[in-house]
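U., I forgot to send this yesterday:
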Amino acid sequence: MKKTIKKPELTYSNKNGYEKLPKAELKNLEELNRLYIDFIARAKTERDAHDEAVALLETAGFSDLLKFEKDNTRLKPGDRIYKSCSGKTLMAVIIGKKPLEAGMHIVGAHTDSPRIDIKQNPLYESGDMAFLDTHYYGGIKKYQWVTIPLALHGVFIKPDGKKIKVSVGEDPSEPVLCITDLLPHLAQDQMKKTLAEGIEGEHLDAIVGSIPSDDKKLKEKIKHNVLKLLNEKYGITEEDFLSAELELVPAAPPREAGLDRSMVLGYGQDDRVCAYTGLKAMIDLKGTPEYTSCVLLCDKEEIGSVGATGMASNFFENTAAELVNLTSEVYSELSLKRAMEHSWMLSADVNSLFDPLFPAVSEKKNTAFMNHGLCLTKYCGARGKSGSSDANAEFVAEMRRIFAKAGVIWQTGELGKVDQGGGGTIAWLMARYGMQVVDCGVGLLSMHAPMELAGKLDIYMAYKGYLAFLKDGRK
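Result:
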Protein backbone atom coordinates (compact mmCIF):
# COMPACT_ATOMS: atom_id res chain seq x y z
CA MET A 1 0.00 0.00 0.00
CA LYS A 2 1.31 3.43 -0.90
CA LYS A 3 2.08 5.61 2.14
CA THR A 4 0.38 8.99 2.40
CA ILE A 5 2.93 11.72 3.04
CA LYS A 6 1.56 14.58 5.09
CA LYS A 7 2.34 17.87 3.45
CA PRO A 8 3.87 20.51 5.72
CA GLU A 9 1.81 23.53 6.68
CA LEU A 10 3.19 26.32 4.51
CA THR A 11 1.87 29.20 6.58
CA TYR A 12 2.37 30.07 10.26
CA SER A 13 -0.44 31.23 12.49
CA ASN A 14 -0.29 32.31 16.12
CA LYS A 15 -3.48 31.06 17.81
CA ASN A 16 -4.91 31.39 21.30
CA GLY A 17 -3.38 28.65 23.40
CA TYR A 18 -6.70 27.51 24.83
CA GLU A 19 -7.66 26.34 21.33
CA LYS A 20 -4.65 24.00 21.36
CA LEU A 21 -4.39 22.99 25.02
CA PRO A 22 -5.47 19.39 25.74
CA LYS A 23 -8.46 19.45 28.09
CA ALA A 24 -6.66 16.98 30.34
CA GLU A 25 -4.08 19.68 31.17
CA LEU A 26 -6.56 22.28 32.42
CA LYS A 27 -6.44 20.92 35.96
CA ASN A 28 -2.61 21.11 35.99
CA LEU A 29 -2.79 24.65 34.62
CA GLU A 30 -5.11 25.82 37.38
CA GLU A 31 -3.11 24.12 40.14
CA LEU A 32 0.16 25.65 38.94
CA ASN A 33 -1.42 29.10 38.92
CA ARG A 34 -2.88 28.59 42.39
CA LEU A 35 0.60 27.86 43.73
CA TYR A 36 2.03 30.81 41.80
CA ILE A 37 -0.53 33.26 43.20
CA ASP A 38 0.28 32.03 46.71
CA PHE A 39 4.00 32.56 46.06
CA ILE A 40 3.78 36.14 44.81
CA ALA A 41 1.39 37.02 47.64
CA ARG A 42 4.20 36.18 50.08
CA ALA A 43 7.18 37.26 47.94
CA LYS A 44 6.68 41.02 47.65
CA THR A 45 10.43 41.85 47.64
CA GLU A 46 13.64 40.23 46.45
CA ARG A 47 14.47 39.26 50.05
CA ASP A 48 11.03 37.69 50.49
CA ALA A 49 11.35 35.84 47.18
CA HIS A 50 14.77 34.52 48.18
CA ASP A 51 13.54 33.22 51.53
CA GLU A 52 10.42 31.64 50.04
CA ALA A 53 12.54 29.97 47.34
CA VAL A 54 15.01 28.57 49.87
CA ALA A 55 12.15 27.13 51.91
CA LEU A 56 10.70 25.44 48.81
CA LEU A 57 14.10 24.08 47.78
CA GLU A 58 14.91 22.66 51.21
CA THR A 59 11.49 21.01 51.40
CA ALA A 60 12.28 19.42 48.03
CA GLY A 61 15.58 18.00 49.32
CA PHE A 62 18.08 20.65 48.15
CA SER A 63 21.08 21.30 50.43
CA ASP A 64 23.17 24.42 50.96
CA LEU A 65 26.36 24.27 48.89
CA LEU A 66 28.25 25.82 51.82
CA LYS A 67 28.12 22.45 53.62
CA PHE A 68 29.94 20.81 50.72
CA GLU A 69 32.45 23.66 50.37
CA LYS A 70 33.50 23.60 54.03
CA ASP A 71 34.27 19.87 54.02
CA ASN A 72 35.34 19.72 50.36
CA THR A 73 32.70 16.98 49.97
CA ARG A 74 32.47 15.66 46.43
CA LEU A 75 29.31 16.24 44.43
CA LYS A 76 27.87 13.41 42.35
CA PRO A 77 25.21 13.17 39.63
CA GLY A 78 21.74 13.71 41.06
CA ASP A 79 22.88 15.88 43.99
CA ARG A 80 20.54 18.84 44.59
CA ILE A 81 22.15 21.97 46.00
CA TYR A 82 21.69 25.72 46.21
CA LYS A 83 23.92 28.74 46.85
CA SER A 84 22.73 32.03 48.34
CA CYS A 85 24.22 35.50 47.94
CA SER A 86 23.46 38.12 50.61
CA GLY A 87 19.93 36.82 51.10
CA LYS A 88 18.83 38.23 47.73
CA THR A 89 20.30 36.19 44.89
CA LEU A 90 20.00 32.41 44.64
CA MET A 91 21.32 29.60 42.44
CA ALA A 92 19.78 26.11 42.52
CA VAL A 93 21.56 23.19 40.85
CA ILE A 94 21.00 19.51 40.06
CA ILE A 95 24.28 17.82 39.08
CA GLY A 96 23.92 16.05 35.73
CA LYS A 97 25.32 12.81 34.36
CA LYS A 98 27.77 14.54 32.04
CA PRO A 99 30.83 16.36 33.40
CA LEU A 100 30.37 20.06 34.01
CA GLU A 101 32.74 20.81 31.12
CA ALA A 102 29.96 19.67 28.78
CA GLY A 103 27.96 22.70 29.91
CA MET A 104 24.84 23.42 31.94
CA HIS A 105 21.20 24.09 31.11
CA ILE A 106 20.41 27.36 32.86
CA VAL A 107 17.14 29.22 33.48
CA GLY A 108 17.95 32.71 34.72
CA ALA A 109 15.32 35.10 36.11
CA HIS A 110 15.28 38.07 38.49
CA THR A 111 13.27 38.69 41.65
CA ASP A 112 13.62 42.46 42.09
CA SER A 113 10.74 44.61 40.84
CA PRO A 114 10.07 48.34 40.42
CA ARG A 115 9.12 49.84 43.77
CA ILE A 116 9.69 52.79 46.10
CA ASP A 117 12.65 52.58 48.48
CA ILE A 118 12.95 54.42 51.78
CA LYS A 119 15.94 56.79 52.03
CA GLN A 120 18.66 56.32 54.67
CA ASN A 121 17.58 59.33 56.77
CA PRO A 122 13.88 59.36 55.92
CA LEU A 123 11.66 60.37 58.82
CA TYR A 124 10.49 63.97 59.01
CA GLU A 125 7.51 66.07 60.12
CA SER A 126 5.66 68.67 58.07
CA GLY A 127 2.15 70.16 58.17
CA ASP A 128 1.20 68.23 61.31
CA MET A 129 2.01 64.91 59.64
CA ALA A 130 4.99 62.56 59.67
CA PHE A 131 6.49 61.29 56.41
CA LEU A 132 9.04 58.81 55.11
CA ASP A 133 11.30 60.30 52.43
CA THR A 134 11.71 57.96 49.45
CA HIS A 135 13.72 57.20 46.31
CA TYR A 136 11.98 55.15 43.60
CA TYR A 137 13.67 52.01 42.26
CA GLY A 138 13.55 50.95 38.62
CA GLY A 139 11.47 52.25 35.74
CA ILE A 140 8.12 53.36 37.12
CA LYS A 141 5.40 55.74 36.02
CA LYS A 142 5.41 57.86 39.15
CA TYR A 143 1.78 58.95 38.86
CA GLN A 144 0.66 55.31 39.23
CA TRP A 145 2.04 55.08 42.78
CA VAL A 146 0.02 57.85 44.43
CA THR A 147 -3.23 57.30 46.39
CA ILE A 148 -2.91 53.50 46.49
CA PRO A 149 -2.45 51.43 49.68
CA LEU A 150 1.22 50.60 50.24
CA ALA A 151 2.87 48.04 52.48
CA LEU A 152 6.26 48.49 54.13
CA HIS A 153 8.71 45.58 53.81
CA GLY A 154 12.37 45.18 54.65
CA VAL A 155 14.98 44.84 57.34
CA PHE A 156 16.78 46.86 59.97
CA ILE A 157 20.33 45.63 60.65
CA LYS A 158 21.78 46.55 64.05
CA PRO A 159 25.54 47.23 64.45
CA ASP A 160 25.85 43.91 66.31
CA GLY A 161 24.48 42.11 63.22
CA LYS A 162 20.97 41.52 64.54
CA LYS A 163 18.42 41.50 61.71
CA ILE A 164 14.92 42.83 62.35
CA LYS A 165 12.38 41.97 59.64
CA VAL A 166 9.58 44.44 58.94
CA SER A 167 6.26 43.81 57.22
CA VAL A 168 3.37 46.22 57.73
CA GLY A 169 0.25 46.51 55.61
CA GLU A 170 -0.27 43.03 54.15
CA ASP A 171 -2.70 41.71 56.75
CA PRO A 172 -6.15 43.38 56.56
CA SER A 173 -5.89 44.10 60.28
CA GLU A 174 -2.71 46.17 59.76
CA PRO A 175 -2.51 49.82 58.70
CA VAL A 176 -1.21 50.78 55.27
CA LEU A 177 0.82 53.76 54.07
CA CYS A 178 0.02 56.05 51.15
CA ILE A 179 1.33 58.87 48.97
CA THR A 180 -1.09 61.73 48.33
CA ASP A 181 -2.03 63.55 45.14
CA LEU A 182 -3.71 66.86 44.40
CA LEU A 183 -7.48 67.07 44.17
CA PRO A 184 -8.72 67.96 40.64
CA HIS A 185 -10.10 71.26 41.91
CA LEU A 186 -6.57 72.53 42.67
CA ALA A 187 -4.63 70.66 39.98
CA GLN A 188 -5.04 72.94 36.97
CA ASP A 189 -1.31 73.63 36.76
CA GLN A 190 -0.39 70.02 37.48
CA MET A 191 -2.65 68.66 34.73
CA LYS A 192 -0.98 70.90 32.15
CA LYS A 193 2.24 68.95 32.69
CA THR A 194 3.18 65.73 30.93
CA LEU A 195 2.54 62.41 32.67
CA ALA A 196 6.26 62.17 33.40
CA GLU A 197 6.30 65.60 35.05
CA GLY A 198 2.98 65.54 36.93
CA ILE A 199 4.44 63.76 39.96
CA GLU A 200 8.06 64.45 40.89
CA GLY A 201 10.37 61.88 42.43
CA GLU A 202 11.00 63.99 45.52
CA HIS A 203 7.24 64.20 46.10
CA LEU A 204 6.74 60.46 46.47
CA ASP A 205 6.89 60.63 50.26
CA ALA A 206 4.61 58.39 52.29
CA ILE A 207 2.49 59.60 55.20
CA VAL A 208 3.16 57.52 58.32
CA GLY A 209 1.39 59.39 61.12
CA SER A 210 -0.60 62.40 62.35
CA ILE A 211 -0.99 61.97 66.14
CA PRO A 212 1.38 64.07 68.30
CA SER A 213 3.28 62.84 71.33
CA ASP A 214 2.02 63.83 74.79
CA ASP A 215 5.42 65.34 75.58
CA LYS A 216 4.87 69.09 75.19
CA LYS A 217 8.63 69.80 75.32
CA LEU A 218 9.27 68.14 71.97
CA LYS A 219 9.46 70.16 68.75
CA GLU A 220 8.45 67.33 66.38
CA LYS A 221 5.76 65.59 68.38
CA ILE A 222 4.24 63.54 65.54
CA LYS A 223 7.62 62.28 64.32
CA HIS A 224 8.51 61.34 67.89
CA ASN A 225 5.24 59.44 68.30
CA VAL A 226 5.98 57.41 65.14
CA LEU A 227 9.46 56.61 66.47
CA LYS A 228 7.91 55.51 69.75
CA LEU A 229 5.57 53.10 67.93
CA LEU A 230 8.48 51.68 65.90
CA ASN A 231 10.57 51.26 69.02
CA GLU A 232 7.78 49.47 70.87
CA LYS A 233 7.19 47.03 68.00
CA TYR A 234 10.68 46.53 66.57
CA GLY A 235 13.09 47.91 69.18
CA ILE A 236 14.67 50.34 66.73
CA THR A 237 15.67 54.01 66.97
CA GLU A 238 15.92 56.67 64.26
CA GLU A 239 19.63 55.96 63.82
CA ASP A 240 18.80 52.38 62.78
CA PHE A 241 17.33 53.68 59.52
CA LEU A 242 20.94 54.30 58.46
CA SER A 243 21.52 50.53 58.12
CA ALA A 244 18.09 49.51 56.89
CA GLU A 245 16.66 48.35 53.58
CA LEU A 246 12.98 49.26 53.47
CA GLU A 247 10.64 49.15 50.47
CA LEU A 248 7.13 50.35 49.74
CA VAL A 249 5.12 47.93 47.58
CA PRO A 250 1.41 47.70 46.74
CA ALA A 251 -0.51 46.27 49.69
CA ALA A 252 -3.11 44.60 47.47
CA PRO A 253 -2.86 40.79 47.14
CA PRO A 254 -2.64 39.08 43.73
CA ARG A 255 -5.98 37.95 42.36
CA GLU A 256 -7.49 35.92 39.56
CA ALA A 257 -8.70 38.33 36.88
CA GLY A 258 -11.42 38.23 34.25
CA LEU A 259 -14.91 36.83 34.54
CA ASP A 260 -13.49 33.59 33.15
CA ARG A 261 -10.62 33.65 35.69
CA SER A 262 -8.13 33.32 32.82
CA MET A 263 -5.59 35.87 34.09
CA VAL A 264 -3.57 36.83 37.16
CA LEU A 265 -3.40 40.43 38.40
CA GLY A 266 -0.67 41.19 40.90
CA TYR A 267 2.40 43.16 41.87
CA GLY A 268 5.92 42.11 40.90
CA GLN A 269 5.11 39.66 38.12
CA ASP A 270 8.10 41.22 36.35
CA ASP A 271 9.93 39.02 36.91
CA ARG A 272 8.70 36.74 39.68
CA VAL A 273 6.41 35.02 37.19
CA CYS A 274 9.49 33.60 35.44
CA ALA A 275 11.38 33.16 38.72
CA TYR A 276 8.64 31.01 40.22
CA THR A 277 7.94 28.91 37.12
CA GLY A 278 11.68 28.29 36.70
CA LEU A 279 12.05 27.37 40.36
CA LYS A 280 9.01 25.07 40.27
CA ALA A 281 10.35 23.38 37.13
CA MET A 282 13.66 22.72 38.89
CA ILE A 283 11.93 21.29 41.97
CA ASP A 284 9.70 19.05 39.82
CA LEU A 285 12.59 17.76 37.69
CA LYS A 286 12.68 14.01 38.31
CA GLY A 287 15.76 11.83 38.28
CA THR A 288 19.20 12.92 37.08
CA PRO A 289 19.38 15.12 33.98
CA GLU A 290 21.99 14.55 31.27
CA TYR A 291 23.40 18.05 31.71
CA THR A 292 23.70 19.87 35.02
CA SER A 293 20.53 21.91 35.49
CA CYS A 294 20.63 25.35 37.06
CA VAL A 295 18.08 28.01 38.00
CA LEU A 296 19.31 31.51 38.80
CA LEU A 297 17.17 34.00 40.71
CA CYS A 298 19.09 37.25 40.73
CA ASP A 299 18.71 40.78 42.05
CA LYS A 300 19.19 44.31 40.67
CA GLU A 301 18.07 43.60 37.08
CA GLU A 302 15.71 46.58 37.13
CA ILE A 303 18.64 48.97 37.71
CA GLY A 304 21.20 47.40 35.38
CA SER A 305 22.15 44.14 37.17
CA VAL A 306 24.80 46.02 39.14
CA GLY A 307 26.09 45.40 42.67
CA ALA A 308 27.19 42.27 44.48
CA THR A 309 23.82 40.58 43.98
CA GLY A 310 23.34 41.54 40.32
CA MET A 311 24.27 39.39 37.32
CA ALA A 312 27.13 41.76 36.48
CA SER A 313 28.85 40.47 39.63
CA ASN A 314 30.96 37.30 39.74
CA PHE A 315 28.46 35.35 41.86
CA PHE A 316 27.47 32.95 39.07
CA GLU A 317 31.04 32.46 37.87
CA ASN A 318 32.33 31.89 41.39
CA THR A 319 29.61 29.36 42.13
CA ALA A 320 30.27 27.57 38.85
CA ALA A 321 33.95 27.38 39.86
CA GLU A 322 32.93 25.72 43.14
CA LEU A 323 30.86 23.18 41.19
CA VAL A 324 33.80 22.40 38.90
CA ASN A 325 36.04 22.01 41.94
CA LEU A 326 33.64 19.63 43.71
CA THR A 327 32.84 17.51 40.65
CA SER A 328 36.29 17.22 39.00
CA GLU A 329 39.33 15.26 40.10
CA VAL A 330 41.50 18.31 39.50
CA TYR A 331 40.22 21.88 39.31
CA SER A 332 41.37 23.99 36.38
CA GLU A 333 40.43 27.38 35.01
CA LEU A 334 40.13 25.80 31.57
CA SER A 335 37.45 23.41 32.83
CA LEU A 336 35.49 26.36 34.21
CA LYS A 337 35.74 28.29 30.95
CA ARG A 338 34.62 25.23 29.00
CA ALA A 339 31.67 24.72 31.34
CA MET A 340 30.56 28.32 30.78
CA GLU A 341 31.08 28.32 27.03
CA HIS A 342 29.28 25.02 26.46
CA SER A 343 26.23 26.01 28.52
CA TRP A 344 22.76 26.78 27.20
CA MET A 345 20.60 29.41 28.86
CA LEU A 346 17.05 30.71 28.80
CA SER A 347 17.06 34.31 29.99
CA ALA A 348 13.71 34.01 31.70
CA ASP A 349 12.28 37.52 31.66
CA VAL A 350 8.93 39.00 30.73
CA ASN A 351 7.94 40.67 27.48
CA SER A 352 5.14 43.02 26.51
CA LEU A 353 1.80 41.83 25.15
CA PHE A 354 -0.30 43.39 22.43
CA ASP A 355 -2.73 45.83 24.06
CA PRO A 356 -5.70 46.66 21.80
CA LEU A 357 -6.23 49.88 23.77
CA PHE A 358 -2.73 51.05 22.70
CA PRO A 359 -2.19 49.34 19.31
CA ALA A 360 0.09 52.00 17.84
CA VAL A 361 3.18 50.89 19.80
CA SER A 362 3.15 47.29 18.56
CA GLU A 363 3.71 45.56 15.22
CA LYS A 364 1.09 42.82 15.30
CA LYS A 365 2.95 40.21 13.25
CA ASN A 366 5.84 40.27 15.71
CA THR A 367 4.28 40.88 19.09
CA ALA A 368 3.09 38.47 21.76
CA PHE A 369 -0.59 38.00 22.65
CA MET A 370 -2.34 37.13 25.90
CA ASN A 371 -2.61 33.36 26.47
CA HIS A 372 -0.89 32.45 23.20
CA GLY A 373 1.87 30.72 25.14
CA LEU A 374 5.43 31.16 26.37
CA CYS A 375 7.15 34.04 24.54
CA LEU A 376 10.55 33.42 22.95
CA THR A 377 12.40 36.62 22.00
CA LYS A 378 15.40 36.27 19.68
CA TYR A 379 16.56 39.80 20.40
CA CYS A 380 15.51 42.76 22.52
CA GLY A 381 17.51 45.97 22.96
CA ALA A 382 16.50 49.36 21.60
CA ARG A 383 16.54 51.05 18.20
CA GLY A 384 19.13 49.08 16.18
CA LYS A 385 19.07 46.15 18.67
CA SER A 386 21.39 48.12 20.99
CA GLY A 387 22.03 46.15 24.19
CA SER A 388 20.80 42.83 22.78
CA SER A 389 22.74 39.57 22.56
CA ASP A 390 20.57 38.48 19.56
CA ALA A 391 20.40 34.68 19.84
CA ASN A 392 21.79 32.46 17.09
CA ALA A 393 19.22 30.91 14.74
CA GLU A 394 20.72 27.48 15.51
CA PHE A 395 19.87 27.89 19.19
CA VAL A 396 16.35 29.11 18.44
CA ALA A 397 15.90 25.96 16.33
CA GLU A 398 16.99 23.86 19.33
CA MET A 399 14.27 25.55 21.39
CA ARG A 400 11.71 24.77 18.69
CA ARG A 401 12.75 21.11 18.87
CA ILE A 402 12.57 20.96 22.69
CA PHE A 403 9.22 22.75 22.92
CA ALA A 404 7.65 20.67 20.15
CA LYS A 405 8.79 17.44 21.81
CA ALA A 406 7.26 18.50 25.15
CA GLY A 407 4.04 19.93 23.73
CA VAL A 408 4.84 23.47 24.86
CA ILE A 409 2.60 26.18 23.37
CA TRP A 410 4.82 29.14 22.57
CA GLN A 411 5.05 32.28 20.46
CA THR A 412 7.58 34.92 19.48
CA GLY A 413 7.44 38.57 20.39
CA GLU A 414 9.36 41.84 20.31
CA LEU A 415 9.22 44.68 22.81
CA GLY A 416 7.29 47.15 20.66
CA LYS A 417 7.84 48.64 17.22
CA VAL A 418 11.29 49.47 15.90
CA ASP A 419 12.38 52.86 17.33
CA GLN A 420 9.34 52.87 19.68
CA GLY A 421 11.31 51.94 22.77
CA GLY A 422 12.95 48.74 23.89
CA GLY A 423 14.46 47.08 26.91
CA GLY A 424 17.10 44.68 28.15
CA THR A 425 17.53 41.55 30.24
CA ILE A 426 20.43 39.59 31.76
CA ALA A 427 20.95 37.72 28.46
CA TRP A 428 23.97 39.73 27.32
CA LEU A 429 25.72 39.29 30.66
CA MET A 430 25.63 35.52 30.23
CA ALA A 431 26.27 35.49 26.48
CA ARG A 432 29.68 37.08 27.09
CA TYR A 433 30.89 33.67 28.29
CA GLY A 434 30.20 32.31 24.81
CA MET A 435 27.18 30.27 25.92
CA GLN A 436 24.03 30.09 23.82
CA VAL A 437 21.36 32.41 25.29
CA VAL A 438 17.85 33.42 24.25
CA ASP A 439 15.18 35.44 26.08
CA CYS A 440 12.16 33.36 26.96
CA GLY A 441 9.39 34.38 29.35
CA VAL A 442 5.80 35.36 30.04
CA GLY A 443 4.11 38.31 28.36
CA LEU A 444 2.53 41.01 30.55
CA LEU A 445 0.10 43.88 30.23
CA SER A 446 0.77 47.00 32.36
CA MET A 447 4.40 45.99 32.91
CA HIS A 448 6.11 47.96 35.73
CA ALA A 449 2.76 49.21 37.02
CA PRO A 450 1.80 48.56 40.67
CA MET A 451 -0.43 45.72 39.40
CA GLU A 452 0.55 43.74 36.29
CA LEU A 453 -1.61 41.33 34.25
CA ALA A 454 -0.53 37.90 32.99
CA GLY A 455 -2.38 35.03 31.30
CA LYS A 456 -2.72 31.74 33.19
CA LEU A 457 -1.96 29.68 30.10
CA ASP A 458 1.24 31.66 29.48
CA ILE A 459 2.33 31.09 33.10
CA TYR A 460 1.67 27.36 32.84
CA MET A 461 3.54 27.11 29.52
CA ALA A 462 6.53 28.92 31.06
CA TYR A 463 6.70 26.21 33.71
CA LYS A 464 6.27 23.47 31.09
CA GLY A 465 8.86 25.03 28.77
CA TYR A 466 11.47 25.53 31.48
CA LEU A 467 10.99 21.97 32.73
CA ALA A 468 11.48 20.59 29.22
CA PHE A 469 14.62 22.69 28.74
CA LEU A 470 16.18 21.71 32.09
CA LYS A 471 15.75 17.99 31.57
CA ASP A 472 16.27 17.71 27.79
CA GLY A 473 19.39 16.31 26.20
CA ARG A 474 21.00 17.67 23.06
CA LYS A 475 21.03 16.41 19.50
